[in-house]
Write a structure and sequence with these properties.
The complex is a heterodimer of chains A (298) and B (306).
Chain A (H helix, E strand, L loop, with lengths): L1 H30 L1 H23 L31 H37 L1 H15 L3 H12 L3 H11 L1 H16 L2 H8 L4 H38 L10 H8 L8 H28 L7
Helix pairs in contact in A: 1-11, 2-3, 2-11, 3-4, 3-6, 3-7, 3-9, 3-11, 4-7, 5-6, 6-9, 7-9, 8-9, 9-10, 9-11, 10-11
Chain B lengths: L1 H9 L2 H16 L5 H6 L5 H11 L5 H13 L13 H36 L4 H15 L2 H15 L11 H31 L2 H8 L4 H39 L4 H11 L2 H29 L7
Helix pairs in contact in B: 2-13, 6-7, 6-9, 6-11, 6-13, 7-9, 8-9, 8-11, 9-11, 10-11, 11-12, 11-13, 12-13
Classes of the chains: A mainly alpha (298), B mainly alpha (306).
Chain lengths: 298, 306
């Protein structure tokens, strides 16, 4: 009875400590101006993507040749492209595509990479050896080239861009997860769980996974930025999302031939990519500083 | 040292096997008949048949793979569908151009990034440091291909100082090298800063200062020398990543390198060239990693060779 009370008390204490960790993390994050700025950028990016159809009733792909290549003005804040389409509207609609690609490819990398990393790090031995050699081979390609190689096999388009970018981020996700598992596998609470006969599956998902989540989330945030750049790069090269879809990189690609006549066409989509990636990088850096216990709390 | 290098080279054999397997299956993963894919859409039935025989497509997969490996070892990468020249002949001159560009960008990144990192580390949390840190973050978030386009608008279209693209001399190298270097400068500056800050907090720095060694010497002789190891590692690792970036930079500036060859081959579905270009990129990447490891062991006597 007394033991029970002590146990409950210690659990409560544990919980409150957990909350205080979280609270220190949040307050540390909020004090970091750069990280907050990143958060604001991402917030604007998400909100404008969600509200795109409300903000612009017109189809962003609808052509209006009479107003082609107009420089920025009050009516068209960012000017129009070679087919007379509003660049502002296309950038905001393009945000939906970039957001969808980065979300899906990060999700893909996590859904495949985290289980492989968990298994590889936890069980070790042969399975670890096989997974790691496989990762070695993927890591022997520069990441963007890996995405390009996959696109050359899969073909162009939105779905294949997501798959290629997601797989390009896979080896790092596996490595990071495995690294974290290795450091946690030998902790006393994992040994205790094993000693009382808890099944591996339960240990992996209930004891280990929650403890490796923070570094994984931090890296996923940084991967978001990379995914946006990769997808835009593929679009720019003409092997990503295809026109007339207003993907940022594709827009840059078509603006490339207009550098002399209308430099604004290539300028603004690039700024959109830059701000979105900057947002995710600042957010990721801030989250790492605030949450990663390995870096210690102040 | 020599033994370590040999051992490091041997340890890449499984990776090379993996790369060859991936390239082997790259063509076989394509929908349709691999012989037809390799020969191209315009090939005659006879040509397709010839390639089928060369590849031994009627034989079991492991025999096909063995033959593929045999050709790889002899650097026989097949024939380009577009030009009908051997792939290796297509690749060799382009590879040289890509290497020139990549080396120029790396040098530029060191020349700018290392001093910037030192300045930031010596006076941390000052305006100068914040400027360097902010610029580094900008450099890392900027899509290089967009930066390239902006540089063209400024220096070629408006100021008419530098050529829009192409190759032919030093002036043609400037804009592509700056574009490719941008993110590397950022990474080098960030890493030099953190490595330098760590070193400057060490006891031997305090000792040097208390001995009356001039501050300049403390920073350059005692500080920089000891922070070189992590910086070299990062430069080496980033060199490989940068190789991937050459595809974009070369496209922006019409630089006749391997990256541009790769992308035009992808668009033309010239699979033998795609396969060859990706192979060369991967080999370069693996090679860079070996060089970094060996340099690391050379510079850091604490690294054990076993």
């Amino acid at each position: 009875m007394i033991d029970d009370k002590a146990a409950i008390a210690s659990t409560r204490k544990g919980n409150s400590r957990e909350f205080s960790h979280l609270r220190t993390g949040i307050s540390k994050f909020l004090r970091n101006k750069a990280a907050c700025f990143g958060g604001v950028l991402i917030f604007i990016f998400i909100i404008s993507s969600l509200l795109a159809p409300v903000l612009f009733s017109k189809d962003p792909n609808a052509q209006d040749i009479r107003h082609a290549l107009e420089p920025p003005s009050l009516k068209q804040p960012l000017g129009t492209d070679e087919l007379g389409r509003s660049i502002l509207a296309r950038i905001i609609f393009g945000g939906r595509i970039s957001l969808a690609i980065s979300l899906s490819s990060v999700a893909l990398a996590l859904l495949i990479g985290v289980p492989f990393g968990l298994v590889s790090g936890y069980f070790g031995g042969k399975i670890d050896f096989i997974i790691q050699r496989f990762t070695d081979v993927m890591l022997s390609f520069p990441p963007f080239l890996l995405a390009l190689a996959l696109v050359s096999v899969l073909g162009v388009g939105l779905k294949n861009t997501i798959i290629s970018v997601g797989i390009a981020g896979l080896p790092h996700t596996i490595r990071i997860t495995r690294g974290c598992v290795l450091s946690i596998r030998e902790q006393v609470y994992v040994e205790a769980a094993r000693a009382v006969g808890t099944r591996d599956r339960i240990i992996l998902f209930r004891h280990i996974l929650p403890n490796v989540m923070v570094p994984i989330i931090v890296n996923a945030t940084l991967f978001f930025g990379m995914a946006i750049i990769f997808a835009a790069g593929l679009g720019f090269l003409g092997v990503g999302v295809q026109p007339p879809n207003p993907e940022w990189g594709t827009m840059l690609g078509s603006g490339r031939s207009l550098l002399f006549a209308a430099p604004h066409v290539a300028t603004f989509p690039g700024i959109a990519i830059f701000l979105a990636v900057l947002g995710f990088n600042l957010l990721g850096d801030g989250l790492r500083d605030a949450l990663d216990p390995r870096l210690g709390y102040e | 040292m020599f033994q370590y290098t040999i051992r490091r080279l041997i340890s890449t054999i499984p990776v090379l096997f993996g790369i060859s397997l991936m390239l082997f299956f790259l063509l076989r993963a394509l929908p349709g008949d691999p012989a037809q894919v390799i020969a191209g859409e315009l090939a005659t039935q006879q040509e397709v048949e010839l390639i089928r025989q060369q590849l031994g497509l009627d034989e079991p997969v492991y025999v096909q793979y063995a033959k593929f490996l045999g050709r790889l070892v002899r650097f026989d990468l097949g024939i380009s569908v577009r030009t009908q020249y051997p792939v290796i002949q297509e690749i060799a001159p382009r590879l040289l151009n890509t290497l020139i560009l990549a080396v120029a960008a790396t040098l530029l990144a060191c020349l700018l990034g290392i001093p910037a990192g030192i300045v930031a580390a010596v006076k941390p949390y000052t305006t100068m440091d914040m400027v360097v840190t902010a610029l580094a973050l900008f450099g890392m978030s900027m899509p290089a291909f967009w930066l390239g386009l902006m540089l063209i608008i400024i220096f070629s279209v408006k100021l008419k100082l530098l050529p829009v693209g192409g190759s032919g001399g030093f002036v043609y190298l400037i804009l592509p090298a700056v574009t490719l270097a941008a993110s590397l400068v950022a990474v080098v500056a960030r890493n030099t800063r953190s490595a330098m800050m760590e070193v400057l907090a060490q006891d031997y720095i305090t000792t040097a200062r208390s001995k009356g060694v001039r501050e300049k010497m403390v920073i350059l002789r005692h500080g920089l020398k000891n922070s070189f190891i992590p910086v070299i590692t990062v430069i080496g690792l980033q060199f490989g990543t940068m190789l991937g970036g050459t595809v974009l930079t070369e496209t922006v500036f019409a630089w006749p390198g391997l990256g541009r060859l790769l992308i035009s081959s992808i668009l033309a579905r010239d699979y033998p060239v795609i396969q060859g270009a990706i192979l060369i990129f991967a080999l370069l990447f693996v090679l860079t990693n070996i060089v970094v490891d060996v340099l690391y062991a050379y510079f850091d006597p604490k690294v054990r060779y076993d």
